[in-house]
């Protein structure tokens, strides 16, 4: 298939002051000897989402605690759990920015970057559990500081809102719908310019977007068409489903090889799953992947040895009162990041 005054906050000392590290030992799931230790970084943020009319704030901040309670540490064989403090959500505009929770998100991203970098510097694989998609920014920043380069952005939407394709005066921007644009340097300097990084967190040529389900809609919003005019490599979900996830994963890996990308960040928004199997996300939709297809895709990318770390985002436990989908997410991540895909407990869901 063809591909269609911040310095101190970034220090490890700041990370230890701004978060609580829980160094706990889990029984290791069976894993290849070549695999690095895995550390969970819990990032309970909902800063990048707008509030729903029937709730004071989005519920994605609860995802890390719910997934941890569902057995995530054991299932992924994580040797350590690093717990970041939950940032305060505020639906009101903040001074000096037209981004929702922009200043708070900047500070949280710096703390998250310190955690991701410390994990990478220790030779471990950081699996960052959000929270909303804005957790990509701090994670990717930390990876850049640790020497990684490149991004695989798996999401049912392109998340490419930026001031060039919407009116910033008419409404606040929500970073969870802008994370790919922000990561590639489009948007306010507050979330596009970072200490000790020249240029954007990732260049267009080193970014891959996989899973956009609305690109073929004739009434697609301007930001979908805007993305198509960039050098970002795109795999829309319709093409992925037609070609198959195995073939699509191999195509992504070949693109990484062609760009010389040996340590990239992997971002997964769980709304890439079809709403028939995963409705407990901020913006469910169709078409999308099954859990089994997502497991295969992530496993192939992880085992390529080119993925430095990953973010998992947008699961909303308030939409999953019986924790049914929490169990499926945990099983999928456990199978994708630790084991052979031949014994996946999610079957073909």
How is the CATH topology named? Arginase, Chain A
CATH superfamily: Ureohydrolase domain
H-E order: HEEHHEHEHEHEHEHHEHEH
- CATH architecture descriptor text: 3-Layer(aba) Sandwich
Structural key phrases:
9 strands; globular; Arginase, Chain A; 32% helix; 349 residues; alpha/beta; 11 helices; nine-stranded mixed sheet; disordered C terminus
Question: How would you characterize the overall build of this protein?
Answer:
The C terminus is likely disordered. The two termini are 25 Å apart. The chain is α/β, with parallel strands linked by helices. Helix 7 links the parallel strand 6 and strand 7. It has one domain: Arginase, Chain A (3-Layer(aba) Sandwich). It is globular. The protein contains 11 helices and 9 strands. The chain has a 9-stranded mixed beta sheet with strand order 1-3-2-4-9-8-5-6-7, sandwiched between helices.
Question: What's this model, at a glance?
Answer:
With 349 residues, the chain is α/β, with parallel strands linked by helices.
SSE layout and pairings?
Layout: H1 12-18, E1 19-22, E2 38-43, H2 63-69, H3 72-76, E3 78-84, H4 102-121, E4 125-130, H5 135-145, E5 151-154, H6 179-183, E6 207-210, H7 222-228, E7 233-235, H8 237-243, H9 245-259, E8 264-269, H10 291-302, E9 307-313, H11 324-338
Parallel strand pairs: 2-3, 2-4, 4-9, 5-6, 5-8, 6-7, 8-9
Antiparallel strand pairs: 1-3
């Amino acid at each position: 298939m063809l591909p269609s005054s911040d310095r101190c906050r970034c220090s490890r000392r700041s990370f230890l002051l701004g978060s609580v590290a829980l160094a706990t030992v889990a029984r290791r799931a069976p894993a290849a000897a070549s695999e690095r230790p895995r550390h969970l970084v819990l990032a309970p943020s909902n800063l990048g989402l707008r509030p729903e009319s029937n709730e004071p704030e989005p519920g994605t901040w609860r995802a890390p605690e719910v997934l941890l309670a569902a057995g995530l540490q054991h299932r992924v064989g994580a040797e350590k759990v690093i717990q970041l403090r939950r940032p305060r959500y505020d639906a009101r505009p903040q001074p000096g920015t037209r981004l929702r929770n922009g200043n708070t998100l900047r500070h949280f991203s710096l703390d998250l970057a310190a955690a991701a970098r410390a994990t990478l510097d220790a030779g471990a694989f950081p699996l960052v559990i959000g929270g909303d998609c804005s957790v990509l920014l701090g994670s990717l920043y930390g990876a850049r500081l640790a020497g990684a380069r490149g991004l695989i952005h798996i999401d049912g939407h392109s998340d490419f809102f930026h001031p060039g394709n919407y009116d910033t005066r008419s409404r606040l921007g929500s970073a969870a719908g802008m994370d790919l644009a922000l990561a590639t340097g489009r948007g306010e300097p507050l979330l596009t310019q970072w200490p000790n990084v020249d240029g954007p967190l990732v260049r267009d040529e080193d970014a891959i977007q996989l899973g956009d389900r609305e690109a073929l809609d004739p009434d697609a919003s301007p930001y979908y068409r805007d993305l198509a005019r960039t050098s970002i490599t795109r795999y829309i979900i319709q093409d992925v489903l037609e070609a198959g996830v195995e073939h699509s994963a191999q195509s992504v890996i070949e693109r990484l090889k062609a760009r010389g990308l040996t340590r990239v960040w992997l971002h997964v928004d769980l709304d890439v799953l079809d709403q028939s199997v995963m409705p407990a996300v901020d913006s469910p939709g169709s078409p999308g992947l099954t859990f089994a297809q997502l497991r295969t895709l992530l496993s192939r990318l992880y085992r390529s040895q080119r993925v430095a770390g990953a973010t998992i985002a947008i699961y909303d436990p308030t939409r999953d009162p019986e924790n049914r989908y929490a169990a499926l997410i945990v099983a999928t991540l456990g199978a994708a990041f630790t084991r052979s895909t031949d014994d996946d407990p999610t079957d073909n869901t």
